[in-house]
Specification:
Blueprint lengths: L1 H26 L11 E8 L5 E2 L13 E7 L4 H18 L6 E7 L2 H6 L1 H5 L5 E5 L3 H7 L5 H4 L2 E4 L4 E6 L5 H11 L1
Parallel strand pairs: 3-4, 4-5
Antiparallel strand pairs: 1-7, 2-5, 3-6, 6-7
Length: 184
């Protein structure tokens, strides 16, 4: 009977000690070090009331439950554009099981640029290509960040249609991929 009593006390004390220790570390300010290559965007940028237009002329709406890997392209450097599109395409292949949750999209500054990139767009059928009519989406970003067309950064839009993460143009696919995998 004495052994059962000791076992019951141990079973009850272990969760209490764990809970007490974690609460104390939280209130004393301990935070684990997080190594990230991207930049979290605080406060998050809403994507409501954007005027993104699809190829067929209809307005694009972000789907709940889906993440979006977004690149703003002014199509000044076709080689850089192709490199970024390849990163977007590769992310779908590399993520495997989680790949269905991440949609890739490229946003052009205007309809003329959108039409000029037709040959390049045809090489990447799994990527959503849109243009930002009246620059509404990029102006939302410009209020808090550098112009997305000149910075050449890639962004992540979360499942609540909030712009949450920025990846600078200097980062490689491997750097971006590891981070995106953790975000999903």
């Amino acid at each position: 009977m004495d052994k059962q009593y000791r076992l019951a006390v141990i079973i009850l004390l272990i969760p209490l000690i764990t809970l007490t220790a974690s609460t104390l570390t939280y209130f004393l300010g301990y935070k684990p070090e997080i190594n990230t290559v991207g930049t979290p965007i605080e406060p998050k940028i809403e994507t409501k009331n954007t005027n993104l237009i699809k190829e067929d002329g209809t307005k694009f709406e972000f789907m709940p439950g889906k993440f979006y890997f977004v690149y703003f392209d002014n199509f000044e450097d076709e080689e850089l554009s192709e490199k970024k599109y390849e990163i977007a395409r590769s992310s779908k292949i590399t993520l495997r099981r989680e790949g269905h949750r991440l949609l890739r999209m490229v946003i052009y500054k205007n309809k003329d640029t959108f039409n000029d990139a037709l040959a390049l767009r045809s090489k990447y059928p799994g990527v959503i290509f849109l243009y930002d009519e009246n620059d509404v989406f990029s102006k939302n970003i410009n209020d808090r960040l550098e112009d997305p067309y000149s910075s050449k950064s890639m962004f992540v839009v979360d499942s609540f249609a909030l712009l949450i993460w920025e990846f600078q143009k200097e980062l490689t696919f491997n750097d971006i991929f590891e981070e995106v995998k953790e975000i999903l």
